[in-house]
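#onboarding

Welcome to the new folks! Below is a worked example of what a typical request in this channel looks like: someone posts a single protein sequence, and someone else replies with the predicted structure as tokens. Don't worry about understanding the tokens yet, we'll cover that in week two.

Example request:
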Amino acid sequence: MKSLIVGMGIGNLYREVLTNLGYEVVTVDTDPKKGDFTSIKDAVKKHKRFRTAHICTPNFTHEDLAQQVADHADIVFVEKPGLKKSAHWLRLVTSNPKTRFMMVKNNQWRENIKELRKLASNAVTIDLYWINKNRVPGPGTWFTNKKLAYGGVSRDLMTHLLSLYQILNYSYSTTPLTHASAEQRYSLEDVSDTEYGTVNADGTYDVDDVCKIVFQGPQRTWNLIADWRSTSIEERAINFELVNGSSHRFELGLCPEEAYQEMISDAVKNLNNEQYWQDQLAKDLWIHEKVEQF
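Example response:
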């Protein structure tokens, strides 16, 4: 089986994952030193058909590139944060009825999800944190341009947390959202020493760098907090305050490659399972709708 990867930044992670799964991997990148091809047109001209395609390019290119590969892949995975609006995602899916689409939600395939669900069911408060210490991606590039990045951290790190929230809360779609806020605390000058990505000092920084969402159900409260640039801590964790007064903390860390493998394998296994893809569509639309709150 063949897989196509478009964008060889995070695409390098997918190349390793897919190679381990036994796929023949074909890559596309505008830099000829990074990919097998510099355009999707050239890649599909030679290889015709792929079991999976993976869109790993800047946010503002996702929709166009997903449309380009749709006729040539059974399943198209689009890196978070998906597309600009939920309406755009729905249009992509409905205009290509013979192709399956999934926004990457790799956290839902972590091996300890059952354990985390059990903790959540016995908790009164669950705090999900994704806090980076001075790791704003590529300040001054497209990543910190609100128009090109679709907002910032609310479309990036928060999407991780929303996908975890979905898989931990069976009632995710009916639990009321009671708070959603995002703010820009820094300027480009403040993040000139970032540890993550090359700084373009002549570029733009007009995106939110911290955001929070709260869901309040009858039995428990869910606090989701994402922060691109803490000056003091690096924290990716879930804190559970349990009914009996005790607490439990789970360190998330970066999502393991095994979760990516499980996500891809599960999707391929369910290629012809209509209910599976209706469920994925519902989840993907819901996440898009929530980040549209900002």
